[in-house]
């Protein structure tokens, strides 16, 4: 029977997730913490997802299905936030599995630590068939704020956070496409403490639907903007990303002052795609965009910068001798050993 006020609301977005959906939903509905609701946001699925959800819903009213017409992940997450009735909200993805005591353990931890607004955990990695992959994701619970200032230490489907805090900071933001979770964690950390429960909470599935190069670059771009916005907030200044209603286009000829330097950098990083490296006008090859920000590049940005420089050397016979020399110099500055290995491999 549906509890009058659930202790935890679980938000699970899905689109065409029929393959693993039963297992994911079942892992929530069989938790040791029974006073829950599971909000599954169906983002316009065209497979058997709706019928699977209807079947499960008929036997367990704690499952609540919200349907939208392919509005995307951020819209789905915010729809779940808006409908959640519990004071605590947990996340799970439609291809992952929550371990039986996951919600109980996180609820109890948050009950004992009222200052914490965001709590993550650890994950066992499994393959598409559910078999262990022999590795675990164990982000360190130590010095979390230092880590968060550089990258996300949270595994998104392990987190539990306080509903009031999530709504106070405005939920997930569409402008940070592919990095909406990192931006959300940074804003939650502005108003409360953060922690990682050093326990295995879920089985995290790795499978063939790997991230594309384009999406990975967008993710890295969103992370950079999120860190810049966070630094401004920590300095007591207004959030420069507050006016962004959609993901910025780094090809925009008139970017705002907030994203201008990042857009310039990422127009170069996208040359990690050989086709783009071949077609880019010589006038658009702006090596200073990378060189001027070299000290601040993350590992992911360095990877794209190295690939972009190498592609230009390999794919472009029209570059001047001086430009080619600058590209070799840039590769060496990005990492001599890595540059040598890349050039040998190619």
TrEMBL record:
UniProt cross-references to InterPro entries, sorted A to Z: Glyco_trans_2-like, Glycosyltransf_2, Nucleotide-diphossugar_trans
Keywords from the named record: Glycosyltransferase, Transferase
Superkingdom to which the source organism belongs: Bacteria
Enzyme class, UniProt record, top EC level: transferase
SUPFAM superfamilies (UniProt xref): Nucleotide-diphospho-sugar transferases (SSF53448)
Region ranges (Disordered): 231-257
A Pfam entry, by short name: Glycos_transf_2
Membrane-crossing residue ranges in chain numbering: none
Low complexity composition bias: residue spans: 238-248
A GO MF label: glycosyltransferase activity
Residues covered by the Glycosyltransferase 2-like domain: 9-168
Enzyme Commission no: 2.4.-.-
Entries under PANTHER family matching the protein: GLYCOSYLTRANSFERASE, GLYCOSYLTRANSFERASE EPSE-RELATED
Family: Belongs to the glycosyltransferase 2 family.
Protein name: Glycosyltransferase
């Amino acid at each position: 029977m549906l509890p009058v006020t659930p202790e935890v609301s679980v938000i699970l977005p899905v689109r065409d997730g029929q393959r693993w959906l039963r297992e994911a939903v079942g892992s929530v509905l069989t938790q040791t913490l029974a006073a829950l609701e599971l909000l599954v946001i169906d983002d316009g699925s065209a497979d058997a997802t709706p019928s699977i959800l209807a079947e499960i819903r008929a036997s367990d009213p704690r499952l609540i299905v919200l349907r939208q017409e392919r509005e995307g992940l951020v819209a789905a997450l915010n729809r779940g936030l808006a409908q959640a009735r519990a004071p605590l909200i947990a996340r799970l993805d439609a291809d992952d599995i929550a371990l039986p005591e996951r919600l109980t353990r996180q609820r109890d931890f948050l009950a004992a630590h009222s200052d914490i607004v965001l709590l993550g955990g650890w994950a066992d990695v499994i393959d598409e068939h559910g078999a262990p992959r022999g590795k675990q994701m164990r982000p360190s619970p130590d010095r979390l704020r230092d880590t968060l200032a550089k990258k996300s230490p949270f595994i998104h489907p392990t987190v539990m956070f306080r509903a009031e805090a999530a709504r106070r900071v405005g939920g997930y933001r569409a402008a940070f496409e592919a990095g909406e979770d990192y931006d959300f964690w940074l804003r939650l950390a502005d108003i409360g403490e953060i922690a990682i429960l050093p326990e295995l909470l879920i089985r995290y599935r790795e499978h063939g639907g790997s991230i594309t190069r384009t999406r990975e670059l967008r993710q890295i771009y969103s992370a950079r903007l999120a860190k810049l916005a966070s630094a401004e907030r920590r300095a007591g200044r207004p959030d420069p990303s507050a006016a962004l209603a959609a993901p910025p286009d780094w090809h925009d000829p008139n970017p705002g002052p907030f994203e201008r330097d990042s857009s310039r950098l990422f127009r170069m990083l996208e040359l990690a795609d050989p086709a783009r490296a071949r077609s880019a006008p010589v006038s658009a090859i702006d090596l200073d965009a990378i060189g001027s920000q070299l000290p601040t590049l993350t590992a992911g940005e360095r990877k794209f910068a190295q690939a972009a420089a190498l592609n230009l050397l390999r794919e472009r016979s029209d570059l001047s001798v001086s430009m080619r020399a600058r590209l070799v110099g840039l590769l060496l500055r990005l990492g001599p050993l890595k540059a040598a290995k890349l050039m040998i491999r190619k």
